[in-house]
Specification:
This is Oxidoreductase AflY. By secondary structure, this protein is mainly alpha-helical. Helices cover 49% and strands 3% of the residues. α15 packs antiparallel against α17, α15 runs parallel beside α18 and α15 crosses α23.
Length: 500
């Protein structure tokens, strides 16, 4: 069952519950600070904090998560190969935990992914000492072999300052060092900020340190773009800015930009968009300017539009449903902006700036994937595979009485996919991308429902969201090829199975 977001106050909170797998779901949006013995060197996930989607969990599951994440911290490198492919274990384990999975499912996921990880490298205290000087870091930044040194440095900084103050110092301060790290957070298909997201959402100092260290060893290839887009926006952007979906359509309508990336490009962002249409991309990206009073709604719009784009691109006539591997990183990273907005120790200026960078990167990635058409009509008419197999589909609850475990029907919801379908997602043997999309879908549905019929709402009803869930399930369950890569290109679909 998927619930509408419930507003809360410090005086009282209304809670509805539902049992899902081994977890008990509570429909309560917004973070409360959890009591934890976590340190920069020790991961300790409390049973009281299951992330933004607020499932109730069991002590044995929390203990299993802590055990596995501690093992990953000690034993595994951030990249599992020399090509810079990322270790997703922390995301995978916490996304499962945050969607009600039990200890067996979490252990299975860990076992599926631990064997191909590279071993962690020893850190060098002398290098970690040098990293206090920004000038000295030049020879270490962007070099994966120094990940362990950056990790030790940020662990020490968090130990000295606390993780919140360390983020303000090293990411949000606004000086040369912090600005560089700010931009690197969006490198590597957003993996540094995704890593940071799980640290912030679960208040785990060690995972925050991992996110900072991961950013430090990515190259800052986006610097010129981000700097120029921000400069132009400050000088010329009109406010309120256009809807994000309108900017997406503007990209589709600019022939030079829409065709800048080519299927044969090794890196469609830098070899395509930034090489062949940099001015056209900057012209649209510099229209992004969020006013402080718009922050919460523009955050919701960013999240919603990311699903409008990624979900709409997952359907191509005559083919099975497949979500775009690159676009899903933009849905999966979105929850951190809800966490940021809830933190009083982050300034409003920084929250706005971080959101603007995310929106600009969403636009770039859309252009890089060949500008796939968002097919809302096909989402609404989508026929889930379960129906072809004669299975009963998740449907609208009926009757006056809520199901067992629910104090009342959650306002505004008419699907119970979390009950019926999440256990199937939990059993999919992958590297965590699928459950991260499912978790983000649930959070975004709740968030979007708060905004009713706002003009930027494209996915308009509970059944539209349910169709997205089925599209994700059909594309990943019992499937050898789970994703399409660059959905706007016809060539990307050639090996995707046909479907009437």
């Amino acid at each position: 069952m998927l619930a509408k977001m419930i507003s809360s106050s410090t005086a009282s909170r209304r809670i509805s519950k539902i049992i899902v797998s081994s977890g008990e779901r509570t429909f309560l949006f917004g973070q409360t600070r959890s009591i934890s013995m976590a340190t920069p060197y020790k991961i300790q996930v409390p049973v009281t904090n299951t992330g933004l989607w607020k499932f109730r969990q069991q002590d044995d599951t929390a203990n299993k998560v802590s055990e596995l994440l501690q093992e990953d911290l000690k034993k595994h490198h951030v990249f599992f190969n020399q090509d810079g492919f990322h270790n997703h274990i922390p995301h995978h384990v916490l996304a499962l935990y945050g969607t009600g999975a039990g200890p067996d499912a979490i252990q299975m996921a860990y076992n599926e992914n631990k064997n191909y990880q590279r071993p962690a490298k020893e850190s060098h205290e002398s290098v970690a000492d040098e990293l206090h000087s920004w000038e000295y870091t030049k020879k270490y930044r962007g070099r994966e072999k120094h990940y362990s040194d950056f990790l030790l440095f940020y662990q020490r900084e968090i130990e000295r300052l606390g993780w919140e103050a360390a983020l303000n110092e090293h990411l949000f301060k606004g000086d040369e060092r912090a600005n560089d790290m700010f931009q690197r957070m969006f490198a590597g298909f957003l993996h540094p900020i995704i890593q940071l997201m799980y640290g912030v959402e679960w208040e785990q100092p060690a995972i925050v340190a991992e996110g900072l260290a991961q950013a430090a060893v990515h190259k800052n290839q986006l610097k010129t773009f981000f700097d120029e887009a921000e400069r132009r926006a400050g000088e010329t952007a009109e406010t309120p800015m256009p809807q994000i979906a309108a900017l997406i359509e503007e990209i589709r309508g600019d022939r030079k930009l829409a065709t800048a990336a080519e299927m044969g490009d090794a890196n469609k962002v830098f070899d395509g968009v930034m090489k062949r249409a940099p001015e056209e991309m900057l012209r649209i990206a510099s229209k992004v300017k969020v006013l402080p009073e718009e922050l919460d709604e523009r955050t919701a719009e960013m999240f919603h539009t990311a699903f409008y784009v990624a979900g709409g691109a997952a359907l191509r006539p005559g083919k099975e449903a497949k979500w775009d591997f690159f676009l899903i990183h933009h849905t999966n990273a979105a929850p951190i902006f809800l966490s940021f907005n809830s933190k009083s120790w982050i300034s409003a200026e920084i929250k706005v700036r971080m959101l603007e960078h995310k929106i600009r990167m969403d636009l770039v990635q859309y252009a890089a994937r060949g500008c796939p058409e968002p097919r809302l009509d096909q989402i609404r008419s989508y026929r889930p595979r379960d129906r072809d197999q004669g299975k009963e589909l998740v449907s609208k609850p009926s009757g006056d009485n809520p199901p067992p475990g629910c104090a009342r029907w959650p306002t505004g919801t008419d699907t119970n996919w979390a009950t019926d379908l999440l256990p199937r997602f939990h059993s999919i043997p992958d590297d965590g991308h699928t459950i991260k999309v499912a978790r983000a879908l649930g959070i975004c549905h709740e968030l979007s429902s708060k905004y009713g019929d706002k003009p930027w709402i494209k996915i308009k009803g509970d059944y539209d969201w349910l169709k997205l869930v089925y599209m994700l399930l059909d594309g990943t369950e019992h499937s050898g090829t789970r994703w399409v890569r660059s959905a706007g290109f016809e060539e990307a679909w050639k090996d995707i199975p046909a479907r009437d």
